[in-house]
Specification:
Blueprint (H helix, E strand, L loop, with lengths): L2 H22 L7 H44 L16 H14 L2
Helix pairs in contact: 1-2
């Protein structure tokens, strides 16, 4: 169970490297502390925006999938068909007559 810890450590290290590289893009006339804070705020806001967009899209897709799954079930329900979902059961008299005919041939 060591790999999640190693992966988290790698992500933290990559984040620190990206933060430092982004801070170096800001001109030297801006104090480094202010530059680091500004880069951090911009980075966090971009991450929040990306996550919000991802979850919004995922929830929309799941909602459409759920609607597409449940709508035909509810629209095609027949009150006297039971849980078959609109498929009428076969006529039992015809089935029994056919079974008797087949049994007669093999006697």
């Amino acid at each position: 169970m060591i790999w999640p810890v190693a992966a988290a450590g790698f992500l933290v290290e990559a984040g620190k490297t990206a933060w430092d590289a982004s801070t170096n893009l800001i001109p030297e006339s801006v104090p480094r502390g202010v530059a680091r804070i500004t880069v951090g705020v911009v980075g966090v806001s971009l991450i929040i925006h990306a996550l919000r967009a991802f979850f919004s899209t995922a929830l929309f897709i799941m909602g459409i999938a759920g609607f597409s799954y449940l709508a035909p079930i509810h629209l095609n329900k027949n009150s006297d068909s039971g849980s078959a979902g609109g498929v009428k059961p076969p006529n039992t008299e015809v089935s029994l007559e056919e079974a008797r005919r087949i049994m007669e041939t093999y006697k």
